[in-house]
Design goal:
heterodimer, A: 112 residues, mainly beta, six-stranded mixed beta sheet, five-stranded antiparallel beta sheet, B: 116 residues, 0% helix
Chain lengths: 112, 116
């Protein structure tokens, strides 16, 4: 079952903050976050592994709550370059096999 | 070093024809993934190769779709008797390690397939 991201879309002014959430109905092993600009391939932002790590990348950070089976991506003081569609990618171990599935996506637009 | 490359970048075909899409992963990467992305939609997992293990084909939408990976490197995704609903961007990604879950996936630029 595909992980659900919220919100589906968000519009920000430059300098504003945003939070994107990713929820799964299954137990998680890892969470990856990617950003995809229009017409381009997804680009890796960060990975969070089981254990509640919080990672950072410039002004973008994320958290991973295993118990709630959720991850959140935090965009601080957004820049025009942050515009794009954000996907979470969730890894699960199922019967010893690793399964990977992307979330529904969140479209983010930053205005000047 | 070179990233993931895919060819062709664009493919227009007629309904009912077969197509082959190619992916060259980053050298040394053991894991290779194929995804499909329809216009304005998310990434749909198709198939996953890990080293010499049998591929995980659980995402292939029908038996018209098949993929192989030769010598643990180059992969080809074949779509037989294409249908209009097959039109999408097909993305390939590779990652370095033998165990899943801990590694970044590096994406290629994709092949845009249009079935007329």
């Amino acid at each position: 079952q595909q992980p659900v991201q919220s919100p589906q879309a968000v519009i920000l002014r430059e300098g504003e903050d945003a939070v994107i959430n990713c929820s799964s109905s299954k137990a998680l092993y890892s969470v990856h976050w990617y950003r995809q600009k229009h017409g381009e391939a997804p680009v890796f932002l960060m990975i969070l592994l089981k254990g509640g790590e919080q990672k950072g990348h410039e002004k973008i950070s994320a958290s991973f709550n295993e118990k709630k089976q959720q991850s959140s991506l935090y965009l601080t003081a957004s820049q025009l370059s942050y515009s794009g569609t954000y996907f979470c990618g969730l890894g699960r171990l199922t019967s010893g096999t690793y399964k990977y599935i992307f979330g529904t996506g969140t479209r983010l637009k930053v205005l000047a | 070093g070179a990233g993931v490359s895919q060819s062709p970048s664009n493919k227009v075909t007629e309904k009912g024809k077969d197509v082959e899409l190619r992916c060259d992963p980053i050298s040394g990467h053991t894991a290779l993934y194929w995804y499909r992305q329809s216009l304005g939609q998310g990434l749909e997992f198709l198939i996953y190769f890990q080293g010499n293990s049998a591929p995980d084909k659980s995402g292939l939408p029908s038996d018209r779709f098949s993929a192989e990976r030769t010598g643990g490197s180059v992969s080809t995704l074949t779509i037989q008797r294409t249908q209009q609903e097959d039109s999408a961007v097909y993305l390939c990604a590779s990652s370095p390690r033998t165990s899943g879950g801990r590694d970044t996936q590096y994406f290629g630029p994709g092949t845009r397939l249009t079935v007329l």
